[in-house]
Fold this sequence. Notes:
This protein has helices at residues 2-5, 9-37, 40-57, 63-77, 82-91, 98-151, 175-209. It is mainly alpha-helical.
Amino acid sequence: MAIELGLSLSQIFGVLSAGLLFGGLFSPFSGSLTDRFGGRWIMVGGSLVAGLALISMGQVTNWQQLLVTIIVAEGAGMFVLYNVAFAAVVRLDLSVPAQRSISIITLFGGVASTVFWPLTLFLFNEHGWQTTWVILGVAYLIVCLPIHGFALRGPAHLTVLGNQEKGSDWPELQGAARKRGMLWMVISFIFSGYLMGAVMALWVTNVQDLGHT
């Protein structure tokens, strides 16, 4: 993709970094909408925009178009990833504890990477990057969008009292301790995100440099 668009690897990562930054800035907005309306239609709308953004990514011809589609895709991602999914299932009146639902989502989220890395590479080798983006975008629209609409239907709690759930032994932080806890959590997310992003961005090229395919 970089070669056909005449971009260096550094420029590609620069565009990707800009998209990630935009997605991070969009997170508070997605959280606010989720608190107000619940996760179902937020994730349905995010799936629609994300699918269209991926399809559009297969049509780009220069770095400006790539930047726009990456920004839109990353922004839409803030409406369909873990953050919204966790908040959505906690609000639902389910027959299973929210902790179990969150654990299942996390498990399958990890498995998804294991499946889609080789699948995406196969599609790229067989059809090229343009068709691969289109296939992934269409799959998002016909698979993820209806799943979000179907799985998240049902009555929701008006309030979420996480620390009062049955079996919870964790006291709620208050005052200055709460602020310190939030600060340390944000710092841990920043560094873990940096490390995971570096691994995902450099893993394939590092393996190729070692002579593997």
